[in-house]
Structures are given as structure tokens and as C-alpha cells.
Amino acid sequence: MTVTPLNEQELAALRALDTPTVCNALELLVPERRGYGYTVDPLICSFPELPPMVGYARTVVIRSMNPPTIGGDDMRAQRIAYYEYVERGPRPSISVIQDIDPLPGFGSFWGEVQSNVHKGLGALGTITNGCVRDIDACAEGFQFISGSIKPSHAFVHVVAFGVEVTVAGMEVRPDDLIHADRHGAVVIPHEVARDVVGTADLLARKEAVVIEATRKPGFSAAALKEAFAKQDDIN
Fold this sequence. Notes:
The protein is α/β, with parallel strands linked by helices. It folds into two domains: 8-188, Ribonuclease E inhibitor RraA/RraA-like (Glucose Oxidase, domain 1), CATH 3.50.30.40; 197-231, no CATH class. It contains six helices and twelve strands.
């Protein structure tokens, strides 16, 4: 990654926002991205009570419907190489996994063991079009945002890692900065990452004028028009 990773204070400020608010800010900062860069397919958030995840993408491609085509020794070497990849790079990380089977989520990559391993290697959680399992036994504080929940891992195995992936319509490259919560996920371009919080604050102040107007007795279309005019003076 060619940019300086965000520090903990900057990450914490982003975690204080929900993902829709981040999307709103990006519509102002990078309006050309208004129609892409976020999840568009339904996903299940297993732990909606957890705070938003903000981290750098570790990208993975998996399959599970058929056994892997390589032998046991090669599989072990690939798995170690994958874990080394997860450990490298900016932290915290988010594991972004694309299941490329005809039936995504046939078998689960995620469960008690993988969630603990990845948490230990610096990951906050996963975003995947595949499935998850062991909901009650996964690592504490580790977030699952997935296409489905299933009971078996079937023949799940890693096909590739450190490559561009597409999950729920969101294209993600290695080390992309991701913001995710119960609503889904969005990629924050590195060049505007430090401007998102300030822009979100500006939008909140503009929205407050309208919301305040709606709560006053006698609210009307005329009052709404006046509130919209007042928004233009806020900067």
C-alpha cells in the first residue's frame, strides 16, 4: 500500500460512524463512486450489536463443493502461506472472501477455529458471499457478515489470496480500506479516508436542520422549504 495507514484515533473516529453515513460522505467526496464500491446484495450480520469494522482488506477466493485438486503437503504449504498473508500488511484487517462456486456457501470457511486464528493474526471479522457457522462459538468480538449460515465446511479450501475479489457486488483489492456494519460494507478510497469524518459531520449538521423542523408543531411543506434553504448556509 502506498499511503500511510490510519492511526488508532482516525480509525476510532470512523468506527463511530455507521456505514450508511460513510456512504453519504463518500457521495460528496468522490461523487463518481456513487453507484459502486459498496455491497448491493443482501448479507447477514451475525453480531449486529458489535461496533462497525474499519480495517484493511485481506482478499481470498474459496471453493467448497468439490475436493481440492492438490495433495495434502501442497495444501498445508498453501494454508501456511495464506496465514502469513493474513498476518502481513496494515492492521487491523478484514478478511474479504469470495466464494466462486456455482452455489456460494455450500460449505463454510468460517467457524470457531478460523475466527480465533484470524483474530489472533489481527483481523476484525469477515465479509463474504459464502457462509459461516459456529455462531455461538466463534471468537469473541469477531464479526461475521455473510451470504448465509450453514452447518458444514464440506470441501472448503482456498483457491487464491491477495487478488481482487467481488463480494455482494463490491469490488475489493488487497489493502483496500473497508467500513462495514449491519447494513453492509463500503470501500473507502485511501485518498479521502481522512476527510470522511469531517464531511459526515457537515452532513449531520445539515440534516439536523430538517429533522428539527419536522418535530416542531405545525410542520408543513413551507417549513420544509425554509429548512432546505437554511441548509445551504451551513458549511
